[in-house]
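Q&A log
Question type: sequence-to-structure
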Amino acid sequence: MFIIGERINGMFKDIAQGIREEDPTAIHYWAKKQEEGGARYLDINTGPAAKDQVKVMQWLVEKTQEASDLPLALDSTNYDAIEAGLELCKRPAMINSVPAEWPKMERVFTMAAKHNSAVIGLAMNEQGIPKDADTRVALAMELVAAADSYGIPMEDLYIDPLVLPCNVGQDHGPEVMNTLRQVKMLADPSPRTVVGLSNISQGTKSRELINRTFATMGIANGLDAAVADACDAELIEAIATARVIMNLDIYCDSYVDVYIKQQK
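Response status: OK
Response body:
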């Protein structure tokens, strides 16, 4: 499992201020800090307040790449903004995200094929987030079929079963774990899996502990990636340890340091 660093997001005050003032200081800081922490991708989100989504996405992509060579995950419901950002990416990027809805899938998978991009597919449609694993998996299969029709390799498709906060959607937790396991049987090779990790702890008092616990349980159920806090050292240690226990990485006394270095 690897981390997609979540911090370059216009919903954070320092990033929003940097966008308003066209000051890249915070963007440079978080790009470097997340890379040092062990992120493999950097998520770029303009935030809801940006008036010109296309212009802001282009600016964020340029400024982030000034500070880090990590590939980017472009995060927006505005596909014009994502497409503009993809044009500027120095390395193959990730599109975050698309639900199992036409014509959104058509738009996103066309962009992905053109730019050799990975895609995060959401296990939801116009009816919203399903409660049970079976419906989530059925929607994931629609995403798999659509990606395949556009020639997207399964290893570049990341299915997000969609995590709800455990304090309001506690019954969704087991369904998400079940979905993670079943997604691996949808194709050969199988698509990958991803979650927005901080969603599980939203509104709780023990956010870091809940995030770490969910991440390790997710790894045991086939989780490949998470949009998460790459600067949470204890989270990184827990992920590295879970990978060793699940025989995904070879044990050595410095396995945490090795895990971090492997992301670069």
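Response note: Residues 83 and 131 are 32 Å apart (CA to CA).
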